[in-house]
Amino acid sequence: MVKWSQKAVLRFEQRSNFGSSFKQLDYNDLICIFFVGPIKRFYKDVNIISNDDGYEIGLDGRKIKTPLNNILKVNSLSLANMIANEWRSQRDLIKKHEMLLTNIAFTAIDNPQNMTKEEMIDQLTEWLYTDTLCFRIKEPVEMKSLQEQRYDPILDWLRERYNCEVPISDNIMPPDIPVSTQNKLKQIFNFNQASLFGLTLITENLKSLILTIALINQKISISEAVSLSRLELEYQTRVWGSVEWAHDLEKNLITATVASALIFFLSNSESTKVVKKGKL
Question: Are 84 and 46 in contact (CB under 8 A)?
Answer without folding.
Answer: yes
